[in-house]
């Protein structure tokens, strides 16, 4: 049984609801207070991608409905877009979101989603039709990857999965089981290991977390199979070992070992975020938030926070005001939904 922390979609939830009351101020230079949770929104249908707009509001993707909600503190979530062509089955659907670094001028939003025959990356303005930037990423009932994010170099990075066929991961001709690096227009980015190819790194099983530290180093979270999940430091052209290696032990064969591993029961990591000197890891099966000290590209001893407090955790992001935002994933078919699930939580920085 694969330990990917996913399952079939659940039925739709009720209409999204807003938090009540005034949310606490947040200090961008501070550290998120993990004991000061605030519910920004509730009753969301399998929230997956989350990306912030320049005004501090967030766009939240509903995996199964294909809707994008605008979520802001003190206001009811409102639907601002419906991505056409989303096919939600198994782990597929509307997955990652990213906002263009020049959104104030271009107004572009990017999405990774499962269509009828493939996974694809599109961009669109909230008042327009999507433009397909990259298609042909194999889709399956599981291992679709789906996280996208703009790096400090202005390029768009995407984590993909092997779509259930591990031989795709080391194959440089396949976009599956990779981290891809694209220009904002969807072309292979200049400086990629192989000119004309979008592949930045390979040998991945299922990447759903991407984050950069202050020095511009890229870290990625990866679902293991039966033994261990991973946090990897991503370097261009490196092979991270899947399917030959799960976890450590591949360095003597030319593979790159992870910096950190957990058992699959403790983690099944999806989103990750970095603020200050801490890496935050949202765990699905592990039902906790891992915090990991980060120094000069090295990771310290992880600490489990919020164990079983909010259920399955999907996405973690840092807001412009320094607050940490976290989404639950209890309505995805593997959780135990409670009243108000799924929720978007906020932890102000002090």
From TrEMBL:
Residues 1-34, 160-196, 327-350 are annotated as: Disordered. Residues 9-26 have a biased composition (Low complexity). It comes from the Bacteria. Residues 45-334 form the Glucose/Sorbosone dehydrogenase domain. Gene3D superfamilies: TolB, C-terminal domain (2.120.10.30). It holds the Pfam family GSDH. Residues 333-350 have a biased composition (Basic and acidic residues). PANTHER family: HEDGEHOG-INTERACTING PROTEIN, HIPL1 PROTEIN. This is PQQ-dependent sugar dehydrogenase. It comes from Nocardia abscessus.
């Amino acid at each position: 049984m694969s330990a990917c922390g996913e399952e079939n979609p659940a039925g739709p939830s009720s209409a999204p609801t807003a938090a009540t009351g005034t949310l606490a101020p947040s200090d961008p230079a501070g550290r998120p207070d993990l004991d000061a949770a605030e519910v920004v929104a509730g009753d969301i249908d399998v929230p997956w991608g989350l990306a912030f707009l320049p005004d501090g509001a967030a766009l939240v993707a509903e995996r199964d409905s294909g809707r994008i909600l605008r979520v802001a503190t003190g206001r009811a979530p409102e639907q601002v877009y419906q991505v056409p062509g989303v096919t939600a089955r198994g782990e597929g659907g509307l997955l990652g979101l990213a906002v263009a670094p020049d959104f104030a001028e271009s107004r572009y939003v990017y999405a990774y989603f499962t269509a009828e025959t493939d996974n694809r990356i599109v961009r669109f303005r909230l008042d327009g039709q999507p433009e397909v930037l990259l298609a042909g990423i194999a889709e399956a009932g599981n291992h679709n990857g789906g996280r996208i994010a703009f790096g400090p170099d202005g390029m768009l990075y995407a984590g993909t999965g092997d779509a259930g066929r591990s031989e795709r991961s080391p194959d440089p001709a396949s976009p599956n089981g990779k981290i891809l690096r694209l220009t904002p227009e969807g072309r292979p980015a200049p400086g990629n290991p192989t000119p004309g190819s979008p592949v930045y790194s390979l040998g991945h099983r299922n990447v759903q977390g991407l984050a950069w530290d202050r020095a511009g180093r890229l870290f990625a979270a990866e679902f293991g199979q039966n033994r261990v999940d991973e946090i990897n430091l991503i370097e261009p052209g490196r092979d991270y070992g899947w399917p030959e290696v799960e976890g450590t032990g591949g360095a003597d064969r030319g593979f790159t070992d992870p910096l950190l591993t957990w058992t699959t029961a403790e983690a099944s990591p999806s989103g990750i975020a970095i603020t200050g000197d801490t890496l935050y890891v949202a765990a699905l099966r592990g039902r906790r938030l891992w915090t990991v000290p980060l120094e000069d590209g090295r990771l310290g001893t992880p600490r489990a926070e919020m164990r079983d407090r909010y259920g399955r955790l999907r996405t973690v992001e840092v807001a412009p005001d320094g607050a940490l935002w976290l989404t639950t994933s209890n309505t995805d078919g593997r959780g135990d939904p409670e009243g108000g699930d799924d929720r978007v939580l906020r932890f102000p920085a002090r």
